[in-house]
Amino acid sequence: MGRINHLAVLITVVLQQAIGFVWYHYGFGPAWMAGVGITADRMQPTATVFVVAIVAAFLFSYTVAWLLRMTRSDSWFDGFKIGLVLAFAVAGGAIATHYGFLTIRPIVAAIDIGRELVGGAVTGFVLGIWRKR
Q1: Contact indicator for 108, 36 with CB cutoff of 8 Å
Q2: Contact yes or no for 40/33 (Cβ under 8 A)
Q3: CB-CB contact of 99 with 109 (8 Å)
Q4: What CA–CA distance (Å, rounded) separates 80 from 73?
Q5: Residues near 89 by Cβ (< 8 Å), separated by ≥ 6?
Q6: Taking a C-beta distance cutoff of 8 angstroms, is the pair 95, 116 a contact?
């Protein structure tokens, strides 16, 4: 059974942050802001938000790496599937549930879940292909 590749985990954390930046800055930011009823000038994220996002990305990446190790998966496709399913089941389910109770517009949930799915799939792909032996 292989070990966890910590460098690959670090790379996936960076990729997840880059995906989020591109997803919201160049892709779905205006629709997301309209869905939550705010404007760009009201967006004032603090450093804490980014720290939480980075810690969450590490937790997700290490969980995917651990699952790959425990299931003895050793291909990009196995990683892709594990990352995608984990993102959908955990992040997607939590987002849908919480946003439903907060009565946030469905488009916001769809945008956020989509970002989690892409990040999860990329994370799984990288960790599946770049295994430490």
Answers
A1: yes
A2: yes
A3: yes
A4: 11
A5: none
A6: yes
Dig out the tokens for 41 from the structure: 């000038």
Each domain of the chain, given as residue ranges in start order, spans 6-129
Q: What does the DSSP 8-state code read for residue 3?
A: B
**Residues 75-130: tens digit of each pLDDT:** 999 999 999 999 999 999 999 999 989 888 899 999 999 999 999 999 999 999 98
Please tell me the distance from the alpha carbon of residue 89 to that of residue 63, in angstroms, as a whole number: 13
CA distance 75 to 78: 5
CA–CA distances in Å: residue 66 to residues 26, 45, 59, 63, 91 = 32, 31, 10, 5, 18
